[in-house]
Write a structure and sequence with these properties.
This protein has about 190 residues and is α+β, with helices and mostly antiparallel strands. It has one domain. The chain has four helices and six strands. The chain has a two-stranded antiparallel sheet with strand order 1-6. Strands 2-5 form a two-stranded antiparallel ribbon. It has a two-stranded antiparallel sheet with strand order 3-4. A hairpin with a 2-residue loop joins β3 and β4. The structure holds iron/sulfur cluster (3 copies).
């Protein structure tokens, strides 16, 4: 190979080597971008901002699960332990006792327990709760606002496009770090 041909050959080799290096950089870049996207998607989960939720009822009906992943939570630090709890009783209850006809919850998911006169404790049975928000609305409008809705992450599928988030009229669904997926009624995160 004469000198002219050798230079042309080297130039083509260098060119092909450069193309290969550029392609591998793009490939790596794509891989890293994919990893970052995956980490972002995997590092955050859906949650309800309790200050934005207006208890519209769609959390009970729009989840992809048969029974919604949204549950009622109780912030006991805010609760008045009221005898006449507006998160537990219908607005005009026939009687102030645990009869089903007196309760606001359609599935009997709120347990009322006498503590001492005149205080009662209210606990949510999450296995029964369907996330309808009726108790939350009652407590928010007329009580201390200690009941609130949250996505329960041991049942939520963390769908990329949460069907409830898409339907929520209040933009109350937000992405939060998976390491602290709950927002308390007082605003702290756990
Ligand atoms: S859809 Fe939005 S506003 Fe309605 S109950 Fe759920 S979080 Fe609240
Ligand atoms: S992310 Fe999916 S499973 Fe979780 S609350 Fe939304 S719709 Fe339900
Ligand atoms: S009223 Fe609705 S949100 Fe409240 S505990 Fe019952 S099912 Fe859950």
């Amino acid at each position: 190979m004469d000198e002219k041909k050798r230079k042309r050959h080297m130039t083509r080799s260098e060119f092909l080597g450069r193309v290969a290096r550029v392609l591998s950089v793009f490939a790596l870049g794509g891989t890293f971008a994919g990893l970052v996207r995956h980490q972002v998607a995997g590092g955050t989960v859906w949650q309800i901002d309790p200050t934005k939720c207006t208890q519209c009822g769609q959390c009970a009906t729009h989840c992809v699960l048969d029974q919604s992943a949204v549950k009622c939570f109780h912030e006991f630090r805010m609760c008045g332990y009221c005898n006449l709890c507006t998160g537990f009783f219908e607005p005009q209850p026939p009687a102030l006792n645990e009869g089903a006809e007196n309760q606001i919850c359609p599935v009997g998911a709120i347990q009322r327990r006498f503590v001492e006169d005149p205080y009662y404790e209210y606990r949510i049975d999450e296995d029964l709760c369907i996330g309808c928000g009726r108790c939350v609305k009652g407590c928010t409008l007329f009580g201390n606002g200690s009941l609130y809705l949250q996505v329960r992450h041991d049942v939520c599928k963390n769908c990329n496009e949460c069907a409830i988030a898409a339907a929520c009229p209040s933009d109350a669904f937000v992405r939060v770090p998976a390491s602290k997926p709950y927002i308390s009624r007082l605003g702290d995160r756990t």
